[in-house]
Amino acid sequence: MITAAVKHTGHRHPRPRSAAIVDDIIAQLSQQGYRDTEPRRLVINAAAAQRRPFTAEELCAALPCVGRATVYRGLRLLVETEQVCRVLLEDRELRYQLSHQGHHHHLLCAACGASADLANCDVDALLQEAAATAGFQMSGHWLEIYGRCADCAVV
Amino acid sequence: MITAAVKHTGHRHPRPRSAAIVDDIIAQLSQQGYRDTEPRRLVINAAAAQRRPFTAEELCAALPCVGRATVYRGLRLLVETEQVCRVLLEDRELRYQLSHQGHHHHLLCAACGASADLANCDVDALLQEAAATAGFQMSGHWLEIYGRCADCAVV
DNA sequence: TATCCAACTGATACGGAGTATCATAATGAT
DNA sequence: ATCATTATGATACTCCGTATCAGTTGGATA
Ligand SMILES: [Zn+2]
Ligand SMILES: [Zn+2]
Ligand SMILES: [Zn+2]
Ligand SMILES: [Zn+2]
Prior knowledge:
homodimer, Arc Repressor Mutant, subunit A, Dna Ligase, domain 1, two-stranded antiparallel ribbon, 5 helices, 5 strands, globular, DNA-binding
Protein backbone atom coordinates (compact mmCIF):
# COMPACT_ATOMS: atom_id res chain seq x y z
CA MET A 1 0.00 0.00 0.00
CA ILE A 2 1.14 3.49 -0.73
CA THR A 3 1.84 5.78 2.17
CA ALA A 4 0.36 9.00 0.97
CA ALA A 5 2.25 12.23 1.21
CA VAL A 6 0.82 13.75 4.33
CA LYS A 7 0.25 17.44 4.23
CA HIS A 8 2.70 18.96 6.70
CA THR A 9 2.06 22.58 7.25
CA GLY A 10 4.62 24.05 9.53
CA HIS A 11 6.09 21.33 11.69
CA ARG A 12 9.24 19.33 12.01
CA HIS A 13 9.13 16.51 9.48
CA PRO A 14 10.74 17.40 6.13
CA ARG A 15 8.55 16.90 3.14
CA PRO A 16 9.55 15.43 -0.21
CA ARG A 17 11.43 17.97 -2.27
CA SER A 18 8.63 18.14 -4.80
CA ALA A 19 6.30 19.43 -2.11
CA ALA A 20 7.66 22.93 -2.52
CA ILE A 21 6.96 22.79 -6.24
CA VAL A 22 3.46 21.56 -5.62
CA ASP A 23 2.81 24.29 -3.09
CA ASP A 24 4.10 26.87 -5.47
CA ILE A 25 1.90 25.75 -8.31
CA ILE A 26 -1.12 25.39 -6.07
CA ALA A 27 -0.49 28.93 -4.86
CA GLN A 28 -0.43 30.22 -8.41
CA LEU A 29 -3.64 28.41 -9.19
CA SER A 30 -5.32 29.72 -6.05
CA GLN A 31 -4.46 33.22 -7.11
CA GLN A 32 -6.42 32.57 -10.26
CA GLY A 33 -9.42 31.21 -8.42
CA TYR A 34 -8.75 27.52 -8.76
CA ARG A 35 -9.21 25.37 -5.70
CA ASP A 36 -6.69 23.48 -3.70
CA THR A 37 -7.87 19.91 -3.93
CA GLU A 38 -6.32 16.61 -3.06
CA PRO A 39 -6.57 15.04 -6.54
CA ARG A 40 -5.12 18.17 -8.10
CA ARG A 41 -2.18 18.07 -5.72
CA LEU A 42 -1.64 14.43 -6.56
CA VAL A 43 -1.54 15.23 -10.25
CA ILE A 44 0.95 18.04 -9.79
CA ASN A 45 3.04 15.94 -7.51
CA ALA A 46 3.16 13.05 -9.95
CA ALA A 47 4.01 15.40 -12.79
CA ALA A 48 6.84 16.86 -10.76
CA ALA A 49 8.15 13.39 -10.01
CA GLN A 50 8.70 12.53 -13.66
CA ARG A 51 12.22 12.68 -14.97
CA ARG A 52 11.23 12.73 -18.61
CA PRO A 53 8.40 14.22 -20.59
CA PHE A 54 5.43 12.05 -19.75
CA THR A 55 2.11 11.14 -21.31
CA ALA A 56 -1.29 11.72 -19.76
CA GLU A 57 -1.81 7.97 -19.62
CA GLU A 58 1.43 7.47 -17.77
CA LEU A 59 0.20 9.89 -15.18
CA CYS A 60 -3.11 8.05 -14.96
CA ALA A 61 -1.25 4.79 -14.40
CA ALA A 62 0.84 6.45 -11.71
CA LEU A 63 -2.29 7.70 -10.00
CA PRO A 64 -4.70 4.80 -9.81
CA CYS A 65 -6.70 6.55 -7.11
CA VAL A 66 -7.36 9.59 -9.27
CA GLY A 67 -9.98 9.41 -11.96
CA ARG A 68 -8.75 9.50 -15.52
CA ALA A 69 -10.89 12.51 -16.38
CA THR A 70 -9.46 14.34 -13.42
CA VAL A 71 -5.91 13.68 -14.54
CA TYR A 72 -6.71 14.97 -18.01
CA ARG A 73 -8.51 18.01 -16.60
CA GLY A 74 -5.63 18.69 -14.26
CA LEU A 75 -3.10 18.54 -17.06
CA ARG A 76 -5.19 20.78 -19.23
CA LEU A 77 -5.42 23.34 -16.46
CA LEU A 78 -1.68 23.20 -15.89
CA VAL A 79 -1.02 23.77 -19.56
CA GLU A 80 -3.49 26.65 -19.70
CA THR A 81 -1.84 28.31 -16.74
CA GLU A 82 1.56 27.62 -18.25
CA GLN A 83 2.79 25.50 -15.39
CA VAL A 84 3.32 22.64 -17.78
CA CYS A 85 4.52 22.52 -21.40
CA ARG A 86 3.30 20.29 -24.10
CA VAL A 87 5.99 18.41 -25.95
CA LEU A 88 5.41 16.80 -29.28
CA LEU A 89 7.51 13.82 -30.26
CA GLU A 90 8.40 12.94 -33.81
CA ASP A 91 5.67 10.33 -34.01
CA ARG A 92 3.18 12.98 -32.86
CA GLU A 93 2.88 11.49 -29.41
CA LEU A 94 1.94 14.22 -26.99
CA ARG A 95 3.87 14.48 -23.75
CA TYR A 96 4.09 16.98 -20.94
CA GLN A 97 6.68 18.36 -18.61
CA LEU A 98 6.88 20.96 -15.91
CA SER A 99 7.43 24.28 -17.52
CA HIS A 100 10.42 26.46 -16.91
CA GLN A 101 8.29 29.47 -17.73
CA GLY A 102 8.93 31.85 -20.55
CA HIS A 103 9.04 31.07 -24.22
CA HIS A 104 11.43 28.33 -25.14
CA HIS A 105 11.79 25.23 -27.26
CA HIS A 106 12.75 21.67 -26.50
CA LEU A 107 15.70 19.58 -27.50
CA LEU A 108 14.35 16.06 -27.46
CA CYS A 109 16.67 13.09 -27.33
CA ALA A 110 15.50 10.18 -29.44
CA ALA A 111 17.74 7.78 -27.53
CA CYS A 112 16.99 8.45 -23.88
CA GLY A 113 13.87 10.56 -24.08
CA ALA A 114 15.41 13.46 -22.20
CA SER A 115 14.26 16.97 -22.84
CA ALA A 116 16.38 20.08 -22.50
CA ASP A 117 15.26 23.62 -22.94
CA LEU A 118 16.52 25.85 -25.66
CA ALA A 119 16.04 29.40 -24.50
CA ASN A 120 17.76 32.61 -25.46
CA CYS A 121 17.53 31.63 -29.07
CA ASP A 122 16.70 34.23 -31.65
CA VAL A 123 14.84 31.79 -33.83
CA ASP A 124 11.64 33.62 -33.12
CA ALA A 125 12.93 36.91 -34.48
CA LEU A 126 14.27 35.19 -37.55
CA LEU A 127 10.96 33.50 -38.18
CA GLN A 128 9.04 36.69 -37.67
CA GLU A 129 11.22 38.37 -40.24
CA ALA A 130 11.11 35.55 -42.75
CA ALA A 131 7.34 35.38 -42.43
CA ALA A 132 7.00 39.14 -42.83
CA THR A 133 9.01 38.97 -46.02
CA ALA A 134 6.31 36.66 -47.35
CA GLY A 135 3.65 39.16 -46.24
CA PHE A 136 2.67 36.92 -43.35
CA GLN A 137 1.85 38.17 -39.86
CA MET A 138 3.25 35.57 -37.52
CA SER A 139 1.37 35.23 -34.26
CA GLY A 140 2.85 31.99 -33.01
CA HIS A 141 4.70 28.87 -33.92
CA TRP A 142 5.37 25.33 -32.88
CA LEU A 143 8.91 24.14 -32.87
CA GLU A 144 10.40 20.92 -31.58
CA ILE A 145 13.96 19.86 -32.14
CA TYR A 146 14.89 16.20 -32.38
CA GLY A 147 18.23 14.51 -32.11
CA ARG A 148 20.58 13.21 -29.47
CA CYS A 149 21.59 14.75 -26.21
CA ALA A 150 25.22 15.09 -25.17
CA ASP A 151 25.08 11.82 -23.26
CA CYS A 152 23.65 9.86 -26.15
CA ALA A 153 25.58 11.56 -28.93
CA VAL A 154 27.00 9.34 -31.63
CA VAL A 155 30.70 9.87 -32.18
CA MET B 1 -10.55 30.70 -62.51
CA ILE B 2 -7.12 29.41 -63.16
CA THR B 3 -6.49 27.86 -66.53
CA ALA B 4 -4.03 25.17 -65.85
CA ALA B 5 -1.42 23.89 -68.21
CA VAL B 6 -3.03 20.76 -69.49
CA LYS B 7 -0.74 17.97 -70.47
CA HIS B 8 -1.83 16.74 -73.86
CA THR B 9 -0.69 13.23 -74.42
CA GLY B 10 -1.55 12.70 -78.00
CA HIS B 11 -5.31 12.79 -77.99
CA ARG B 12 -7.90 15.45 -78.43
CA HIS B 13 -10.00 15.63 -75.29
CA PRO B 14 -8.38 17.73 -72.57
CA ARG B 15 -8.39 16.12 -69.17
CA PRO B 16 -8.88 17.90 -65.88
CA ARG B 17 -5.83 19.92 -64.96
CA SER B 18 -5.10 17.68 -62.02
CA ALA B 19 -4.66 14.71 -64.33
CA ALA B 20 -1.10 15.73 -65.10
CA ILE B 21 -0.30 15.91 -61.42
CA VAL B 22 -1.85 12.53 -60.83
CA ASP B 23 0.10 11.00 -63.71
CA ASP B 24 3.29 12.47 -62.42
CA ILE B 25 2.81 11.14 -58.92
CA ILE B 26 1.70 7.76 -60.17
CA ALA B 27 4.83 7.64 -62.32
CA GLN B 28 7.01 8.36 -59.32
CA LEU B 29 5.27 5.67 -57.35
CA SER B 30 5.59 3.16 -60.18
CA GLN B 31 9.30 3.79 -60.25
CA GLN B 32 9.38 2.70 -56.64
CA GLY B 33 7.41 -0.45 -57.28
CA TYR B 34 3.97 0.74 -56.25
CA ARG B 35 1.06 -0.11 -58.48
CA ASP B 36 -1.13 2.09 -60.52
CA THR B 37 -4.57 1.43 -59.14
CA GLU B 38 -7.90 3.12 -59.54
CA PRO B 39 -8.50 3.89 -55.86
CA ARG B 40 -4.98 5.25 -55.53
CA ARG B 41 -5.53 7.56 -58.46
CA LEU B 42 -8.77 8.73 -56.95
CA VAL B 43 -7.02 9.58 -53.70
CA ILE B 44 -4.27 11.51 -55.43
CA ASN B 45 -6.78 13.28 -57.59
CA ALA B 46 -8.90 14.31 -54.65
CA ALA B 47 -5.84 15.49 -52.77
CA ALA B 48 -4.79 17.58 -55.74
CA ALA B 49 -8.24 19.11 -55.94
CA GLN B 50 -8.06 20.60 -52.45
CA ARG B 51 -7.31 24.26 -52.19
CA ARG B 52 -6.35 24.15 -48.51
CA PRO B 53 -4.60 21.66 -46.29
CA PHE B 54 -7.12 18.90 -45.81
CA THR B 55 -7.81 16.16 -43.29
CA ALA B 56 -7.89 12.46 -44.01
CA GLU B 57 -11.55 12.40 -43.10
CA GLU B 58 -12.32 15.19 -45.55
CA LEU B 59 -10.75 13.08 -48.24
CA CYS B 60 -12.80 10.07 -47.16
CA ALA B 61 -15.95 12.15 -47.38
CA ALA B 62 -14.95 13.34 -50.85
CA LEU B 63 -14.38 9.76 -51.94
CA PRO B 64 -17.39 7.74 -50.81
CA CYS B 65 -16.53 4.97 -53.22
CA VAL B 66 -13.08 4.45 -51.79
CA GLY B 67 -12.69 2.58 -48.54
CA ARG B 68 -11.58 4.55 -45.54
CA ALA B 69 -8.61 2.31 -44.93
CA THR B 70 -7.54 2.79 -48.51
CA VAL B 71 -7.66 6.54 -48.20
CA TYR B 72 -5.55 6.41 -45.06
CA ARG B 73 -3.11 3.99 -46.64
CA GLY B 74 -2.90 6.12 -49.74
CA LEU B 75 -2.14 9.22 -47.72
CA ARG B 76 0.46 7.40 -45.69
CA LEU B 77 2.18 6.23 -48.85
CA LEU B 78 2.14 9.72 -50.30
CA VAL B 79 3.69 11.12 -47.16
CA GLU B 80 6.33 8.41 -47.09
CA THR B 81 7.25 9.11 -50.68
CA GLU B 82 7.21 12.82 -49.97
CA GLN B 83 4.50 13.62 -52.45
CA VAL B 84 2.41 15.04 -49.65
CA CYS B 85 3.35 17.03 -46.53
CA ARG B 86 1.81 16.75 -43.15
CA VAL B 87 0.67 20.01 -41.66
CA LEU B 88 -0.04 20.42 -37.99
CA LEU B 89 -2.49 23.08 -36.90
CA GLU B 90 -2.33 24.87 -33.59
CA ASP B 91 -4.98 22.61 -32.10
CA ARG B 92 -2.90 19.63 -33.18
CA GLU B 93 -5.26 18.71 -35.97
CA LEU B 94 -3.35 16.89 -38.66
CA ARG B 95 -3.82 17.98 -42.24
CA TYR B 96 -2.14 17.23 -45.54
CA GLN B 97 -1.27 19.03 -48.71
CA LEU B 98 0.54 18.26 -51.91
CA SER B 99 4.20 18.72 -51.32
CA HIS B 100 6.35 21.16 -53.16
CA GLN B 101 9.32 18.92 -52.54
CA GLY B 102 12.43 19.84 -50.61
CA HIS B 103 12.65 20.90 -47.02
CA HIS B 104 10.40 23.79 -46.10
CA HIS B 105 7.99 25.01 -43.48
CA HIS B 106 4.44 26.23 -43.62
CA LEU B 107 2.90 29.58 -42.93
CA LEU B 108 -0.61 28.73 -41.80
CA CYS B 109 -3.33 31.32 -41.81
CA ALA B 110 -5.67 31.08 -38.85
CA ALA B 111 -8.31 33.11 -40.65
CA CYS B 112 -8.67 31.46 -44.05
CA GLY B 113 -6.79 28.23 -43.54
CA ALA B 114 -4.39 28.90 -46.38
CA SER B 115 -0.92 27.49 -46.32
CA ALA B 116 2.12 29.04 -47.91
CA ASP B 117 5.57 27.57 -48.04
CA LEU B 118 8.52 29.12 -46.34
CA ALA B 119 11.59 27.91 -48.12
CA ASN B 120 15.05 29.35 -48.41
CA CYS B 121 15.03 30.08 -44.74
CA ASP B 122 18.17 29.65 -42.72
CA VAL B 123 16.29 28.67 -39.61
CA ASP B 124 17.66 25.19 -39.91
CA ALA B 125 21.26 26.30 -39.72
CA LEU B 126 20.50 28.54 -36.78
CA LEU B 127 18.82 25.71 -34.94
CA GLN B 128 21.63 23.34 -35.68
CA GLU B 129 24.05 25.79 -34.22
CA ALA B 130 21.99 26.65 -31.17
CA ALA B 131 21.47 22.98 -30.46
CA ALA B 132 25.17 22.23 -30.86
CA THR B 133 25.97 24.93 -28.34
CA ALA B 134 23.90 22.94 -25.88
CA GLY B 135 25.83 19.80 -26.80
CA PHE B 136 22.87 18.49 -28.75
CA GLN B 137 23.11 16.72 -32.10
CA MET B 138 20.10 17.86 -34.05
CA SER B 139 18.80 15.34 -36.54
CA GLY B 140 15.47 16.89 -37.35
CA HIS B 141 12.81 19.31 -36.27
CA TRP B 142 9.18 20.15 -36.59
CA LEU B 143 8.24 23.72 -37.24
CA GLU B 144 4.89 25.24 -38.06
CA ILE B 145 4.25 28.95 -38.20
CA TYR B 146 0.83 30.37 -37.36
CA GLY B 147 -0.61 33.76 -38.06
CA ARG B 148 -2.38 35.58 -40.83
CA CYS B 149 -1.67 35.61 -44.51
CA ALA B 150 -1.37 38.83 -46.49
CA ASP B 151 -5.03 38.68 -47.49
CA CYS B 152 -6.26 38.22 -43.95
CA ALA B 153 -3.77 40.50 -42.24
CA VAL B 154 -5.09 42.78 -39.53
CA VAL B 155 -4.15 46.38 -40.09
C1' DT C 1 -3.31 -14.09 -74.28
C1' DA C 2 -3.18 -16.93 -70.28
C1' DT C 3 -0.95 -17.70 -65.89
C1' DC C 4 0.39 -16.48 -61.42
C1' DC C 5 2.06 -14.10 -57.31
C1' DA C 6 2.62 -10.11 -54.91
C1' DA C 7 0.38 -6.01 -54.04
C1' DC C 8 -3.82 -3.92 -53.15
C1' DT C 9 -8.63 -3.22 -51.55
C1' DG C 10 -12.46 -2.60 -48.45
C1' DA C 11 -15.57 -4.27 -44.71
C1' DT C 12 -15.04 -4.83 -40.18
C1' DA C 13 -13.38 -4.67 -35.93
C1' DC C 14 -10.28 -2.91 -32.83
C1' DG C 15 -7.44 0.32 -29.84
C1' DG C 16 -5.82 4.62 -27.98
C1' DA C 17 -6.53 9.32 -26.75
C1' DG C 18 -9.28 12.67 -25.16
C1' DT C 19 -13.95 14.69 -23.91
C1' DA C 20 -19.12 15.08 -22.49
C1' DT C 21 -22.28 13.96 -19.03
C1' DC C 22 -24.06 14.13 -14.63
C1' DA C 23 -24.88 12.75 -9.98
C1' DT C 24 -22.16 13.33 -5.93
C1' DA C 25 -18.59 15.42 -3.07
C1' DA C 26 -15.42 18.88 -1.50
C1' DT C 27 -13.93 23.73 -1.09
C1' DG C 28 -13.78 28.06 0.87
C1' DA C 29 -16.20 32.41 1.54
C1' DT C 30 -19.48 34.28 4.61
C1' DA D 1 -22.49 25.98 10.08
C1' DT D 2 -24.34 27.30 5.70
C1' DC D 3 -24.29 27.34 0.88
C1' DA D 4 -23.10 28.45 -3.88
C1' DT D 5 -19.52 27.20 -6.66
C1' DT D 6 -16.19 24.28 -8.27
C1' DA D 7 -14.23 19.78 -8.64
C1' DT D 8 -14.49 14.82 -8.94
C1' DG D 9 -15.01 10.27 -11.01
C1' DA D 10 -17.68 6.56 -13.25
C1' DT D 11 -19.31 5.94 -17.54
C1' DA D 12 -20.12 6.34 -22.05
C1' DC D 13 -18.94 8.39 -26.10
C1' DT D 14 -16.41 10.37 -30.27
C1' DC D 15 -12.60 10.61 -33.25
C1' DC D 16 -8.65 9.17 -35.54
C1' DG D 17 -5.97 5.81 -37.19
C1' DT D 18 -4.62 0.87 -37.74
C1' DA D 19 -4.86 -4.47 -37.77
C1' DT D 20 -7.12 -8.20 -39.94
C1' DC D 21 -8.27 -10.93 -43.68
C1' DA D 22 -10.85 -12.81 -47.49
C1' DG D 23 -11.28 -11.50 -51.97
C1' DT D 24 -9.56 -8.63 -56.08
C1' DT D 25 -6.35 -6.60 -59.23
C1' DG D 26 -1.99 -5.30 -61.51
C1' DG D 27 1.50 -6.37 -64.27
C1' DA D 28 5.54 -9.36 -65.06
C1' DT D 29 6.52 -13.45 -67.40
C1' DA D 30 6.02 -16.93 -70.79
ZN1 LIG E 1 8.07 28.16 -28.90
ZN1 LIG F 1 19.79 11.19 -24.57
ZN1 LIG G 1 10.79 21.37 -41.78
ZN1 LIG H 1 -5.63 33.96 -44.72
